Amino acid sequence: MSNKILIVDDEPHIRLLLEQTLEELEAEGVELILAANGEEALELIRTERPQIVFLDVMMPRLNGFDVCQQVKQDPELQHTIIIMLTAKGQEFDKQRGQEVGADLYITKPFDPDMLTTKAAELLGLRG
C-alpha cells in the first residue's frame, strides 16, 4: 500500500505551492492527490484513503471544518490525519478545528520545509 497525501484548497496557486512543497516525498513512494473543494475532498478521502489530508478551511460547497468532522465521525476514516491549513488564525478558529477533530492546525503563510518534515514524520519516513 502506497502512502498518499491529499491536498485540498480552492486556490489553484496554493494547491500548486503545496504540491511543489511535498513533491520531494514522491521519491519516497508518496502519491500526491489534489482536490479543489470540500465535496471533492470527501469523495477522494473515501475512495483513495490518504494517510494525510492538508485541508483548507474556507472553501465553497463544503468547508474544511465540515469535511474534517465527517471524516473523523466515520469509523473507517477516523484514522486519517487531518492538517488544517488556513489563513484563519484566530483562537476561535483553532478551537473549532480541535472540536471537529483536526490533528494539526497550521496558519498561512506556512513554512514549506516544516510541512514536508511533518508529513514525512507522520508517514514514518523520517525522524
TrEMBL record:
Pfam families: Response_reg. InterPro entries: Bact_response_regulator, CheY-like_superfamily, Sig_transdc_resp-reg_receiver. PROSITE patterns: RESPONSE_REGULATORY (PS50110). The modification 4-aspartylphosphate is found at residue 56. Keywords: Phosphoprotein. Residues 4-123 form the Response regulatory domain. It comes from the Bacteria. This is Response regulator. It comes from Thermostichus vulcanus str. 'Rupite'. The lineage of its organism: Bacteria, Bacillati, Cyanobacteriota, Cyanophyceae, Thermostichales.
